[in-house]
């Protein structure tokens, strides 16, 4: 049996999709790295806040101004920020998994199109 002719348009479309998905993965991995950096920063702040007592002065940067904050609200703000970042990382991880699955499918399609199947 002879194989059907290879459709160049299908190969180009599959290649473009693969390139787009790889770019998306790169962006997602960069976002994940930034989120982990923020998570580490907030964890360090949380550790520092645990060392303080009610008599210590806590300053918070708000825009270009430093304002005084109490220990309880500062601790709660950092806790909420940590939860937000952790949820953000989970969301990014899911997007990475979904994109990897989509990329594997697109690469499989390209192999089949390239093989003339």
TrEMBL record:
InterPro entries: PFD_beta-like, Prefoldin
SUPFAM superfamilies recorded: Prefoldin
Biological process, per Gene Ontology: chaperone-mediated protein complex assembly; protein folding
Localisation: Cytoplasm
Keywords of this entry: Chaperone, Coiled coil, Cytoplasm
Coiled-coil intervals, chain numbering: 75-109
Record Gene3D superfamilies: 1.10.287.370
Domain of life: Eukaryota
Primary localisation category: cytoplasm
GO CC terms of this entry: cytoplasm; prefoldin complex
Molecular function as annotated in GO: protein-folding chaperone binding; unfolded protein binding
Pfam families named in the record: Prefoldin_2
CDD domains: Prefoldin_6
Homology family: Belongs to the prefoldin subunit beta family.
PANTHER family listed in its UniProt record: PREFOLDIN SUBUNIT 6
Name of this protein: KE2 family protein
